[in-house]
Amino acid sequence: MIEHFDPRRQANSVDFSKDYGTPSPIPNANAAQVTLEIDGITLRVPEGTSVLRAAALADISIPKLCATDSLEAFGSCRLCAVEIEGRRGLPASCTTPVVEGMKVTTQNERLARLRRGVMELYISDHPLDCLTCPANGDCELQDMAGSVGLREVRYGFTGENHLDAAKDESNPYFTFDPSKCIVCSRCVRACEEVQGTFALTIDGRGFESKVSAGQDEAFMNSDCVSCGACVQACPTATLMENSVIDHGVPDRSVVTTCAYCGVGCSFEAQMKGDKLVRMVPYKGGDANHGHSCVKGRFAFGYASHPDRLTTPMIRDSIDQPWREASWEEAISFAAKRLKAIQAEHGRESIGGITSSRCTNEETYLVQKLIRAAFGNNNTDTCARVCHSPTGYGLKTTLGESAGTQTFDSVMKSDAIIVIGANPTDAHPVFGSMMRKRLRQGAKLIVADPRRIDLLKTPHLGEAQHLPLRPGTNVALVNALAHVVITEGLEDKDFVAKRCDTDAYQSWRAFISEERHSPEASEPITGVPADAVRQAARTYATVPNGAIYYGLGVTEHSQGSTMVMGIANLALATGNIGREGVGVNPLRGQNNVQGSCDMGSFPHELPGYQHVADPIARGRFEAVWGVKLDDEPGLRIPNMFDAAIEGTFKALYVQGEDIAQSDPNTQHVEAALRSLDCLIVQDIFLNETAKFAHVLLPGSSFLEKNGTFTNAERRINRVRKVMPPVAGKQDWEITQDLANALGYPMNYAHPSEIMDEIAQLTPSFTGVSYQKLEEHGSLQWPCNDEHPEGMPTMHAVNFPIGLGRFAITEYVATEERTNRRFPLLLTTGRILSQYNVGAQTRRTDNQRWHDEDVLELHPSDAEVRGVRDGDWLGITSRSGQTVLRARVSERMQPGVVYTTFHHPGSGANVITTDNSDWATNCPEYKVTAVQVEKVSQPSAWQQRFTSFDQAQKGYLAKAQQEAP
Amino acid sequence: MSTNNDANLIRMTNQIAINLGSGRDEDAAASAICRHLETFWARAMKQRLVASLDQADNELSPLAHRAATLLATRLAERQAS
Predict the structure, then answer these.
(1) Shortest Cα distance, chain B CAs vs residue A826, angstroms
(2) Could you give the residue ranges of the DSSP H alpha helices within A658-749?
(3) Nearest Cα residue to A13 out of A627, A775, A665, A943
(4) Among A65, A175, A284, A735, which is least packed by CB within 10 angstroms?
(5) Is the dihedral of CA A405, A408, A409, A410 positive or negative?
(6) Architecture of domain A7-107 in this structure
(7) Which domain of life is it from (chain B) (predicted)?
């Protein structure tokens, strides 16, 4: 017997550009192999594979329409019919699993006649406008008509048909043209299986069947979240990107990594020349497996927005108009000022902020510039204001500052705890994966002041909401742990083998105290004790319990304590070190993990090596050729305090909008105004740039080479698809500035920077661009011990040897409600907008959320006579702003909520200077406020508007005057 | 303005003391707090904190005061060596 064998077709070398018709049965499992014969070729495939997929694996293509390998087989189009020896009729190959010894025929006259007949029926109710159709050249229906040799439609076109069905153009990014629909249900199934929203359905029966969003609503009015899964699944032009309708089918494609959230989806940037026509989620992406959200899939238009800065600008003071400058002039202007300030105010009077939106290589270079050329450690990054407590808390307990799992791990979880995170909005692609697992029966526990959408997952099984009061996380996690210990639910074996005994014993004594019981905590957290007990039992008794958390954990005065409390809980229950379990921070920005890894923090060199460690520092000194400071530098809030005090005079900010994103805006503004030199490198005139003296136009992720590291420690390539708008990639600008300061940098390509990172960072020694090309992506640590990277951490031991339980005493925040400020404000995000909104506000995502609103509970609204849409003044101890009201039952009484995506909203005018005790991460999630009806914008908003107009005017003037 | 910054540093130290103090005896707590300040605080911040020990009404909690005093000793030792 001759075996068909192709070494390229091994389990992990699937061709992601090809559609295999049905999904791989059990990915990466050692399923039994089945031998069968298709068209005389013998092949072996895993048990559970469909005949359609088996044929595709052997490069035998069977015509198909309703099948695609991102969706379960459906068996409706009948085009993939085959003959199987010994079986009656012509079964659909997509729904027929392979059987040992099966003999399949995919092509003969009988099958050809059947397929032509099927196609003839389809085409009898389909417009024949192929030449002017947007899917021309990219249409499966067209391909199949060609493949089956359809030559005539004997039924004619005069009968009843759907050719006049009206288009739905309500969504800004895609058009639904039902006249082209073949009702294959791929869109409906994608909405269910891939996205998990269930917004689409097939309305009517038989000839009346049609795809419908919600109950025959327009797409924009339905539950549709515009993730693009339906557009991706559609085999015709029925669901089509408007950019393709406008520009035609793209002609080349480059795989790159999304620059939005910490999921780090892989996309194919599909191009026509230098124009990006569409972003298509890449099936081979290890983080997203071909799925996407409305941001990554569609909101890329900002990269070519007219607001993009294209020329460097300089000025002597911020109340002066800008002046356009050449790159040389601007860089030398900046360097001279920095040197003069250091000469006058000392080496430590300047610093910089690395960007969590830029690449690893760019971030590495900025901190290198600060440490080596500025000669101090005054470097920090936006992780300061989001996940710095994760770094501290996980390093203390587990020994490494990162999440323990891959995203795929959730598919093996039996209970999922989500604390202070909103994955369906902030990490949508992972949120969809989570929902898939929840539909399969995993139990859900959500600890959040708000009733987040994950709790509304269709076909959700057992779910619990623990609606705690903002600021009481630690009391809640202690109560959960108390139940685990006092009810004997801990994993004694795991604790004995893997954890430090002394630390465990002291923690055990501490947590067993009655004051940590759910009953004692109920008055603090507001969560009923029974619910806490039930949640703890669920998590501790399932085979695999996983914890996912977000900024609702970290952005508190006890953010670090809470992270340690979560780690304690996972250690006590043995939920660490295998798939399906773990402690998983959901990272906010695309490269916030990477910016932390790359030494952005003032106390740590790349790879979390402390600056005071003489051996680590020595290695850097040898390669960088300078003496390095052995004392930590200033963190962002410390820089602000020092600036206001007058001891900190200059700041270099790469791709970060501290004026909008950091708390207590008026304090930040005062700090920025105190600087003698603020250098902002960004793609837009962001809020921070309005206080700058030097503007260096940066490049978007489409314009550069590099790598991003996502929330699962996955290092993924970013590939340049178009030239930088202003001529330079961000790393080139930093390099120029270093050279102008007299510290030589001569990198020709980011791969050389990565080589230096690998040389100096123990967890990166095995990383190189070549290896990334070979593997697609790598999860650090990637070194001699783990040459292929490490998907699941802590399987054998912890980087600190034994896991360390930490005492987590609950300390109430100083931010308290009282008669003057009776409500608690908590802040968050929304699906369509990203962070400060600099990117998404410059796209049609505005159609979903064009202003930040204040959500409040009906009872709080009623007491104040507030109705939906009223203007509300929100006042805290820090300041006042005005937002429109949205009355919402998602809130609990006494708690109000808003987002910070629009600068004029001034959400951070209200947030305070309070911060995490260990890391100074701001306490964004708890601010005591009062809310009342008002008739005009706040004083700050009025000042903001006039300052904003003046600054935009200064920029416009410079741009007009330019030759 | 400098007093604002000082007040802030003192407030931060007190906050660290409360969080690192529990579950430890006073010696261990003071040295844990001191180690935290050494590990995470910038040189200037440490010096400012130590300088504030000279002010009688500095509002440091007793444990924070003890940790800051320990930090002062360690900084002096380091400078001497």
Answers:
(1) 22
(2) 658-661, 665-674, 730-740
(3) A775
(4) A284
(5) positive
(6) Roll (3.10)
(7) Bacteria
For chain A, which residues make up each domain, given as ranges? Answer: 7-107, 160-304, 388-585, 823-948
- For domain A160-304, is the CATH number 1.20.140.160? no
Which of A350, A502, A561, A645 is most worth mutating to test chain B (most B CB atoms within 10 A of its CB)?
A645
Peptide bond just before A134 cis, omega within 30 deg: no
Reported as a single tens digit per residue, the pLDDT across A179-226 is 999 999 999 999 999 999 999 999 999 999 999 998 889 999 999 999
Among B19, B39, B42, the residue with its CB nearest the CB of A633 is: B42
pLDDT of residue A963: 62
Closest CA to A833 of A851, A855, A857: A851
Residues A840-883: pLDDT tens digits? Answer: 999 999 999 999 999 999 999 999 999 999 999 999 999 999 99
Q: What is the mean pLDDT of residues A782-810?
A: 94
Query: How far apart, in whole angstroms, are the C-alpha atoms of residue A661 and residue A671?
Result: 14
Q: Is the pLDDT of residue B1 over 70?
A: no
Q: Does B48 touch chain A (CB under 8 A)?
A: no
Domain ranges of chain B: 2-80
- Side-chain half-sphere exposure of A73, counting CA atoms within 13 A: 25
Yes or no, beta carbons of A811 and B40 under 8 Å apart = no
- Sign (positive/negative) of CA torsion A294, A298, A300, A301? negative
> What is the rounded distance in angstroms from the CA atom of residue A416 to the CA atom of residue A483?
17
Query: What pLDDT is attached to residue B3?
Result: 59
What's the CATH superfamily of A388-585? Dimethylsulfoxide Reductase, domain 2 (3.40.228.10)
Report the pLDDT value the prediction gives residue A25, as an integer from 0 to 100: 85
What is this model's ipTM?
0.94
Give the least confident one: A150-159, A754-763, B33-42: A150-159
- Read off the pLDDT of residues B2-51 as tens digits, 9 standing for 90 and up: 457 888 999 999 999 999 998 889 999 999 999 999 999 999 999 999 99
Q: How confident is the model at residue B80 (pLDDT cuts 50, 70, 90)?
A: confident
Residue to test with chain A: of B39, B49, B52, B61, most A Cβ within 10 A: B39
Higher pLDDT, A13 or A68: A68
Q: Which amino acid is at A68?
A: T
Q: Which residues of A touch B (CB under 8 A)?
A: 348, 377-378, 506-507, 510, 557-558, 560-561, 602-603, 610, 612, 631-635, 638, 641-642, 644-647, 807, 809, 811, 913, 915, 917-920
Inter-chain touch A612–B4, beta carbons under 8 Å: no
Q: How many residues can be counted in chain B?
A: 81
| pLDDT tens figures, A76-88 | 999 999 999 999 9
| Total beta-carbon pairs less than 8 A apart between chain A and chain B | 70
Is the model's pLDDT at A231 over the cut of 70?
Answer: yes
Task: Give me the percent of chain A exceeding a pLDDT of 90.
Answer: 92
CA end-to-end distance (rounded Å), chain A = 77
**Rounded to 5, what percent of chain A is helix, strand, coil?**
35, 15, 45
Rounded CA gap, A241 and A224, in Å? Answer: 15
Contacts of B2 in chain A (CB under 8 A): 645-646
pLDDT digits (tens, 9 = 90+) for A605-634: 999 999 999 999 999 999 999 999 999 999
Number of Cβ within a 10 Å radius of residue A340: 14
pLDDT band at A12 (very low <50, low <70, confident <90, very high): very low
How close is the nearest chain A Cα to the Cα of B56, in Å? Answer: 22
For domain A823-948, the question of CATH label 2.40.40.20 is answered with yes
| Residues A923 and A555 sit within 8 Å (Cβ to Cβ) | yes
Judged on CB neighbours under 10 Å (0-12, 13-18, 19+), A3 is exposed
